[in-house]
Amino acid sequence: MNLKILLFLLMNLLDEQLQNIPIIGNLGKLSESDINRICEKIETKILNKQDCWIWIGTISDKVKKGHQHGSFWFNKNPVQIHRIMFHNFISDVPIYKKDGLIVLHKC
Q1: What share of the chain is helix, strand, coil (3-state, %, to 5)?
Q2: Average pLDDT over all residues of the chain
Q3: How would you classify the pairing of strands 71-74 and 77-80?
Q4: Which DSSP state fits 32?
Q5: Over 60: is that where the pLDDT of 59 sits?
Q6: What is the pLDDT, as a whole number, of residue 4?
Q7: Torsion angle in degrees (nearest 10) through CA of 106, 47, 13, 64
Q8: Threshold 0.70, pTM exceeds
Q9: Residue 105 burial (CB count, 10 A)
Q10: Distance, CA of 81 to CA of 71 (rounded, Å)
Q11: 62 Cβ contact list (under 8 Å, min separation 6)
């Protein structure tokens, strides 16, 4: 990965991370080290905020509804990358689907 792009992505993510991120289930605030590891697993050739970011890291073994999810180790637990990113940059993520909310993504 181009070091210049990696540093740009890292700095932008650190700037945009929400404040006062609660711990919910196995989700919590990403450290600078966590964000750096995430940046290393994003395909940067087509990086654009409005487009999908292609995850080139670990893919979960579980197939849900015909597709798999990107997986990331956080606090010694595997988490789905789209959930931890939503939790840190958009809003809290509910623990259980029975709460009526899930994190949808189009990619």
Answers
A1: 30, 15, 55
A2: 78
A3: antiparallel
A4: H
A5: yes
A6: 76
A7: 30
A8: yes
A9: 15
A10: 5
A11: 68, 69
